[in-house]
Predict the structure.
Amino acid sequence: MAKFNDIAKSGAKPGGREPETEARAETPAFGYPHNRAMAAALQKCLEKTFAGRPPANVRTIVMLSGGLDSIALLGTVLKETNHAVHAHHIEIVNFENRCKVEKRSVANALKYIRKHYRPFDYSESRSEFNVGKGGGTDLQLSLFTAFRLCTALGGNIDLVMTGHITPPFWELSEGAAVFHAGFIHKRRKPEWVWPLKFLASAHVQKKLDIYESIPEELAETAWSCRKPVVKKSKFLPCGQCFACKSMIEIKRIRAGRTDAGAGGRRPG
C-alpha cells in the first residue's frame, strides 16, 4: 500500500530496451525514443514497491484521466513491463466543464495506443456532481473508483497507478485514507503507487520528460487545461491555468531546439 511515511517524504511492442536503474542519467538524451527518464522512474518505483522481487503475473490498474501524465504512464507501463493492464477513465462532470474534451482525448489516445502498443483492458465510469466545487479532489474520486474497480475485477489486483507528480501532502493523505478504507474488510489490498514522483528534476523538466516518453502523436492527444473555453462549439485551452502554462513552456523549449540537436543530448 502507499504508506504515509512515503507520502511525507515526498505498445511499441514488448521486448524493447531495459529501463535504466536511475531516474536521471548525467547526460540524458531528449526526444522520443531517446528520453528514458520516464521509463527509469517507473523502474525505480517498481523496484521500491516490490523490494526487487516482483511477483509473477502482475495485474495493474492505470487510472486514465485524458491528461498527458496518465496517457504517458499508460504507454510506459505497456512498453516497459509485462503487467496485465486494465485502464480506467472516469468521466468527471462538474463546474470545470472538462468532461467532454477529456473523454475525446481518451478516445483519441486509446485509438493510438491500441494500434501501436500491446493489448490491455479498458473500462470507464461517470461521476456527476454539479454542486459547488464538486465535493472533493480528483485524486480522492480516482482512488475511491479504483477500489470499486478492484472489487469488480474480483480483487486480484497488485497495483493501482495514478499519474500524479507532486500533489500536496494533505491531498495524498486524503487519497490514501479513502483508498485504504475501501479495503478494510478485504483479504487482499493492492499497492497504490504514483511513479511520476520518481522523476528527478524541476516541474517543467518533469513535464518535458513525460511528453518525450511517448511518441509526439500520442502526446498531442492529451488534454491538459483545467478550465477549457468553449468558442463556436469548440473546446480551447484557457492558456492561463497552471497546466496550460506548463504545456506552453514545454512547447517553447522544444521549439527552441535546433535541428542539429534533435535526437541528441540536452544542451548544457
In short: Strands lie at 59-63, 84-93, 121-128, 159-161, 191-193, 229-231, 234-236. The first strand starts at residue 59 and ends at 63. Residues 101 and 234 are 9 Å apart (CA to CA).
